[in-house]
């Protein structure tokens, strides 16, 4: 069911009530289980969902960090297209979606750029030009053996995340006792586009004997391919409301997306264990994500801002964007470990490369209406519907005005080398270990954009007939949110501009200002000690990270190009203290105090700038990194197979958080009317409660002994202060905001049932509304917020034979939409519908 954010408390109260009920049920069921099994030898046959949950909980229980885990079988059993959607099932984790698919991961209310992603222990750089966040929809779920979200960092880990580190581990031959292979085929049907799409995946692993060893060398390979055809329908105002005159709309746009998305992923891994004292590995992963998108749109700009149901004159346009974009991620990790008496030596060398390539494409082709469209208006402020005459749908009334043509290539590479040395020793009769080491990493990010603007076609001798939309018309657009009219042919646009001299239309300003080269060299070292005292485990240590940053780019100052090179360095000492206490064999308490640091995004650090008279837009290479002091405290109780209940509180004090602002009227920009950039805030606070419960009711009488229940909820609050110039008062002004991308409530509910042949799972994911984008310091009404969302998915597995399984999955059963509003939930900034997706497949597994 679609939930409006104008009533956020009802969703929060429901999740709180459910969680408390689940906690009570867990306690009661644990007591009943204990009573029924008293004096008996416990024997539980676990298959499918329960087995994967139990395996993940064991890893979570043993960890020195607070983390959540999903294992490969668990990923396969969730109706998830990619790694991001698998991660969102964990406590404290939510995702940002793109075209209905999970894309970026948020942890404990902190935005995706404040978290890091590693594959087999090495950092994954971002394919996108302005971001640090890694779009995890690039990684097919089938290539993952385990997925962890680490929320407290020990000193031997990179300190580059405020919310958490998403760690992806790929398949190893030592995950299975011998020959293992699996293959699956699938067809998915998208209800919005009425398209059916194929998917194939497989994995194989085996062990071999080398030298005098037995099964000491392992090889594992995985491959996945999917092509998905789908689409969405959108209407958006971008927040163009005049609230000073009673919520009148200035303009809005209707968009229809047709997308073909192809994913290809592969991994080849080697493990070698020559003896009991040493082990070596090579992990490789390649993933390719290709998006072909066609976007037809119509836009209306009213001569005067209008209220709903009012009529007036309006300018109309029809537009086309057509592009192909390919993102690639490559990761190679070579490492090993060797026992040298009481010493353990380990090391790892990693190389990762991400890229995003958008070859020459139509960034925007705009056709303008010949005359004003009189008597135009709209109704419905949440999903604006166009009121307009039939002239708007006649292609003869539009002619080509401008074509923007672009191509862009971004590369981001990261190379690192790590060495660790640990020694076990006895401290006054207690087991202890000292560990120290260092790491060097070298990161380089390059962006190259070329842009051309084709306009003033009349001056080129083209006739009105040649420019008329009827010459470029392509069918009728299927648009679920109202009447749309004709589509636009991309090939006809390309044929027209293909006959022109491209050099005459090159946009040097747009091209040069967006080009940059940035490097980030980090040298790190640490010292830590682990001490076990009876039922206590303590970890204390210090990490040092020194950063050298350089940026090269170009700006334009009133038409003149200027080079802008920047260099700076900074140093961080990051202490950490972890404690774990075993209350009894099934219950443990955890506490951690840590410090972490995150560098600003590359878009925020960009050296490019544009100064045009008294208006300026620029990045800020001198931004300080974000620093956070983190406190975590919680309790975990484990209840047999696949059973746990936990509660954690967390608090984060964040210094130097970054936000966008207008600095006109101050400092070097005192004479400017606009000067948009990024700056550091003083401090922000984030605190919350994280609850989780999981249980398999295998002691109940059949058929209830197949029931599984899982639930988690995270309740958080944030507070940050921003400052900016207020033109009305002529001075600086402050106001309080929530941290961007921070939802107060995130929750998951899973109800499952399984026996030896059938497995069923119904899951729901809820995320409350959150701040998306800030407006001016004195214009809170135009802040953009993303509304609450609840996604409901269903999956079923039926074993036709011991090795052959029939799979059915249904995603977004409630047809949840994506809604962004300006200031108040009644006023649209963006609304988008996707529709449900249904999948049917076969999986063959041998092990």
TrEMBL record:
* Subcellular location(s) per record: Cell outer membrane
What keywords are assigned to this protein? Cell outer membrane, Membrane, Receptor, Signal, TonB box, Transmembrane, Transmembrane beta strand, Transport
| This protein's record includes keyword Transport | yes
Tell me which InterPro entries the record gives.
Beta-barrel_TonB, Beta-barrel_TonB_sf, Plug_dom, Plug_dom_sf, TonB-dep_rcpt-like, TonB_rcpt_bac
Q: Where is the composition biased (Basic and acidic residues)?
A: 310-324
Pfam families (UniProt xref): Plug, TonB_dep_Rec_b-barrel
| TonB-dependent receptor plug domain mapped to chain residues | 61-165
**Signal sequence coordinates:** 1-34
Membrane topology per record? Multi-pass membrane protein
User: Which Gene Ontology cellular-component terms appear in the entry?
Assistant: cell outer membrane
Q: What PROSITE patterns does UniProt report for this protein, alphabetically?
A: TONB_DEPENDENT_REC_3 (PS52016)
Report residue spans for region: Disordered: 296-324
Which segments constitute the TonB-dependent receptor-like beta-barrel domain? 372-813
Q: Does the keyword Chloroplast apply?
A: no
What superkingdom heads the lineage? Bacteria
NCBIfam families (UniProt xref): TonB-Xanth-Caul
* Similarity-based family: Belongs to the TonB-dependent receptor family.
What's this protein's name? Answer: TonB-dependent receptor
Organism, as annotated: Pseudomonas kielensis
């Amino acid at each position: 069911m679609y939930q409006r954010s104008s009533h956020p408390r009802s969703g929060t109260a429901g999740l709180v009530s459910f969680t408390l009920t689940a906690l009570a049920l867990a306690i009661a069921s644990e007591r009943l289980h204990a009573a029924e099994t008293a004096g008996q030898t416990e024997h539980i046959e676990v298959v499918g969902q329960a087995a994967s949950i139990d395996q993940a909980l064991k890893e979570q229980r043993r960890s020195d960090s607070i983390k959540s885990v999903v294992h490969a079988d668990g990923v396969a059993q969730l109706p998830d297209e990619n790694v991001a959607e698998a991660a969102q099932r964990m406590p404290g984790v939510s995702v940002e979606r793109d075209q209905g698919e999970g894309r970026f991961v948020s942890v404990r209310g902190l935005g995706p750029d404040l978290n890091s992603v590693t594959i087999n222990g090495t950092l994954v750089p971002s394919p996108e030009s302005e971001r640090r966040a890694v779009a995890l929809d690039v990684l097919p779920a089938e290539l993952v053996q385990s997925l962890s979200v680490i929320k407290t960092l020990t000193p031997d880990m990179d300190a580059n995340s405020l919310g958490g580190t998403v760690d992806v581990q790929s398949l190893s031959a030592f995950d299975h006792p011998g020959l293992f292979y699996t293959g699956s085929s699938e067809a998915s049907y998208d209800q919005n586009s009425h398209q059916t799409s194929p998917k194939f995946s497989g994995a194989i692993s085996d062990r071999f004997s080398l030298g005098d060893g037995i099964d000491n060398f392992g090889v594992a390979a995985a491959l996945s391919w999917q092509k998905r055809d789908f689409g969405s329908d959108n209407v958006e105002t971008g927040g163009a409301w005049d609230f000073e005159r009673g919520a009148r709309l200035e303009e809005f746009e209707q968009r229809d997306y047709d997308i073909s998305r192809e994913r290809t992923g592969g991994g080849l891994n080697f493990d070698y264990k020559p003896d009991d004292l040493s082990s070596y590995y090579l992990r490789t992963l390649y993933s390719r994500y290709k998006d072909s998108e066609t976007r037809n749109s119509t836009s209306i700009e009213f001569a005067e801002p209008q209220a709903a149901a009012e009529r007036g004159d309006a300018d109309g346009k029809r537009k086309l964007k057509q592009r192909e974009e390919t993102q690639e991620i490559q990761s190679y990790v070579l490492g090993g470990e060797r026992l040298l008496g009481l010493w353990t030596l380990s090391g790892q060398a990693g190389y990762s490369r991400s890229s995003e390539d958008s070859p020459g494409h139509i960034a925007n082709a705009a056709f303008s209406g010949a005359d004003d469209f009189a008597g135009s208006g709209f109704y419905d402020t949440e999903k604006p519907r166009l009121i307009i005459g039939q002239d708007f749908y006649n292609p003869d009334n539009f002619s080509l005005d401008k074509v923007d043509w672009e191509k862009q290539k971004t590369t981001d590479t990261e190379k690192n080398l790590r060495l660790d040395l640990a020694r076990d020793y006895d401290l006054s009769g207690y087991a202890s270990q000292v560990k120290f080491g260092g790491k060097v990493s070298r990161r380089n990010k390059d962006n190259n954009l070329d842009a051309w603007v084709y306009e003033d076609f009349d001056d080129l001798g083209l006739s009105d007939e040649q420019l008329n939309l009827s010459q470029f018309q392509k069918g009728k657009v299927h648009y679920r949110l109202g009447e749309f009219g004709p589509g636009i042919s991309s090939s006809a646009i390309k044929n027209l501009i293909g006959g022109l001299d491209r050099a005459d239309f090159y946009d040097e300003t747009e091209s040069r200002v967006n080009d940059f080269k940035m490097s980030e060299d980090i040298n790190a070292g640490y010292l830590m000690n682990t001490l076990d005292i009876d039922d206590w485990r303590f970890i204390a240590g210090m990490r040092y990270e020194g950063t050298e940053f350089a940026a090269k780019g170009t700006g334009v100052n009133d038409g003149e190009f200027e080079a802008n090179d920047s260099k700076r360095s900074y140093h961080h000492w990051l202490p950490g203290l972890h404690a774990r206490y075993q209350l009894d064999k099934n219950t443990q308490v955890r506490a951690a105090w840590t410090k972490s640091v995150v560098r600003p995004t590359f878009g925020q650090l960009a050296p490019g700038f544009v100064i045009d008279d008294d208006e300026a837009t620029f990045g800020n290479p001198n931004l300080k990194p974000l620093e956070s002091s983190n406190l975590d405290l919680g309790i975990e109780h484990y209840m047999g197979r696949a059973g746990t209940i936990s509660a954690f509180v967390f608090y984060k004090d964040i210094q130097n958080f970054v936000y966008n602002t207008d600095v006109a009227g101050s400092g070097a920009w005192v004479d400017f009317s606009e000067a948009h950039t990024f700056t550091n805030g003083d401090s922000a606070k984030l605190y919350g409660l994280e609850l989780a419960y999981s249980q398999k009711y295998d002691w109940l009488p059949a058929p209830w002994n197949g029931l599984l229940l899982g639930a988690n909820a995270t309740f958080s609050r944030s507070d940050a202060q921003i400052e900016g110039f207020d033109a009305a008062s002529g001075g600086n002004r402050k106001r309080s905001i929530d941290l961007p991308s921070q939802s107060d409530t995130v929750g998951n509910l899973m109800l499952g049932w399984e026996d030896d042949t059938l497995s069923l799972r119904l899951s729901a994911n809820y995320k409350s509304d959150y701040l998306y984008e800030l407006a001016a310091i004195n214009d809170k009404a135009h802040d953009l917020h993303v509304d609450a969302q609840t996604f409901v998915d269903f999956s079923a597995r039926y074993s036709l034979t011991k090795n052959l399984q029939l799979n059915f999955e249904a995603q977004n059963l409630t047809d949840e939409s994506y809604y962004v509003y300006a200031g108040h939930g009644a006023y649209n900034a963006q609304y988008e519908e996707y529709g449900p997706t249904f999948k049917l497949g076969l999986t063959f597994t041998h092990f």
